[in-house]
Design a protein that fits this description.
This protein is an alpha/beta fold. The chain has helices spanning 13-23, 44-51, 67-81, 98-108, 168-171, 185-195, 219-224, 228-243, 251-267, 272-288; strands at 3-9, 33-39, 57-62, 86-90, 114-123, 128-130, 143-144, 152-154, 164-166, 199-210. 38% of the residues lie in helices and 19% in strands. It starts with a strand and ends in a 15-residue tail after the last helix.
Length: 303
Amino acid sequence: MKVWLAISSFQNDDQVLTTVEKARAFIPELFEHILIVDSEGTDRVPHAIRDRGWSDVEYRNYPENLGSGANLAERLKVAASAGAEYVYALNHDGKIDASVVGKLIEAAQGRTGLGAAYPLSYFTETCSYNLTGTRELPLPAKLVKVAPAEPIIPVYWSSSNGALYSLEPTRKNILPWPAMWMGWEDLDYGWRLKDHGYEQILVTNAVFPDNQEYTVTTMSTIVRKPAWRAYYNIRNLVLAVRRSRNRPMYHAVVAFRLIGECVLTLLFREEKFKRFRLLLAGARDGYTATCAPDARSISMNKF
């Protein structure tokens, strides 16, 4: 299998270089090539690549912040155009573990019609395993304290951080939606893969440590979430539901999410008026915006 490691970045030079340094030890055992897709990056990473003679590392920088949706789509497209079969997608702060990658590749070997193989995320802050994607609904989260015994579990979606994506869908123009910008882009892409008949699996012995902030339930985390996230949290969930097939009942999930966000904002969060405006704008734009692939993310300057 021709597997590329594809790392996303937004001005995270130190973490990216540390990850690449470690990952190069797995070439060619696991990875054929390493790709970095950056936004508004400095010259530091490309200079380091050149100075250290890393001919197996490719760096691409874009003049605007792609966001997580467009960044993932770009990584898949670049790797597919170069002839890769799979992409191991990693965020700039993701942990690179050869055993995790190896188990994902082993599980993917010989499977036809596979869209993605996901590791079992272990949330370090709550000491729990994430099984949310084992059911189609995006809410509520399904976290368990004991890892499941089944080696392979069918799923509908999971986090893109640490995921092994087949590039067969990419070559058929089935891609993450760049207009999502940030939030629910992996849910939307997982649903798209399912709608097009691709299998997605959770490999339970490939445990991926993840410190995703939304699993932390401390008061400080609830209060300090950036206000702009309120907009995308609702808008992108609405767009994912609208784009998916045969899910009219999921609009109730959107309503549940919106009410929950309003309650948290009213009770705990700062900049309440701004957040309420963002939540309502997100719901409005999600239900009124076109779902065409060329839709653009909203400019946060208006808020």
